[in-house]
């Protein structure tokens, strides 16, 4: 079973005065094994006018709190889907 929960949103005014909206979601996938462990991940979606772009990293950790902490950092620093995977990789590697 997969779940998606919107945690944070940002609206950013671009130089050309268009508004870019960013949504930061917590994903949860419950394993199909008997132990039913939850694996948490991140999905970031960017909406700019009629264009929608998103990227997702699944199975980052079994710790919901660790993944929520990473999502907070992504929102704070206005990370977009195009750079999200590399940044998440760096944060996980550093143990943040």
Written description of the protein model:
The protein has one domain (2-94). It contains two helices and four strands; from the N terminus they run E-E-E-E-H-H. The chain has helices at 64-76, 81-94; strands spanning 2-13, 19-30, 38-48, 51-61. The chain has a four-stranded antiparallel beta sheet, covered by helices on one side.
Question: How would you classify the helix and strand content by structural class?
Answer: alpha+beta
Strand order in space, largest sheet: 1-2-3-4
| Unreliably modeled segments | none
Termini Cα gap: 27 Å
Helix % is 25-40%
Strand tally is 4
Oligomerization category of the chains in this entry: single chain
Q: Into how many domains do the coordinates divide?
A: 1
Total of helices: 2
Radius of gyration: 14 Å
Q: What is the averaged pLDDT score? A: 92
Order of helices and strands: EEEEHH
Biggest pleated sheet: 4 strands, antiparallel
% residues in beta strands: over 45%
Shape: elongated
């Amino acid at each position: 079973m997969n779940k998606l929960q919107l945690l944070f949103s940002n609206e950013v005014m671009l130089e050309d005065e268009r508004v870019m909206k960013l949504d930061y979601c917590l994903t949860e996938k419950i394993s199909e094994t008997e132990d039913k462990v939850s694996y948490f991940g991140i999905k970031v979606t960017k909406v700019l006018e009629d264009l929608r772009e998103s990227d997702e990293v699944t199975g980052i950790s079994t710790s919901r709190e660790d993944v929520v902490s990473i999502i907070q950092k992504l929102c704070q620093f206005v990370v977009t889907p195009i750079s999200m995977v590399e940044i998440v990789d760096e944060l996980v590697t550093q143990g943040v």
